[in-house]
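quick one, 78 residues, struct below
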Amino acid sequence: MVLEDSSHNAAARLHTLFMRTLASASRTRGVLWRSSAPFAGPDWLDRAHVLLISTLGFGLLVALPLLLRRELRARPHE
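---
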């Protein structure tokens, strides 16, 4: 019973921390993350970096099945 109660308290604290983080993120600039050290450059460059990294990640995610399918076809069947 003590373990269940302590795990419930830990889950409740984690949920509270997560919700506070979301609330503080909504008050900051419109970027995907907020670092502890602010970016010294202009806002457009900060947003361009976020867009570039997000686009590359999405492109790799989409291309992975195609690359794996091509690799599977290239292997000789035993």
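DSSP finds two helices and no strands in the chain.
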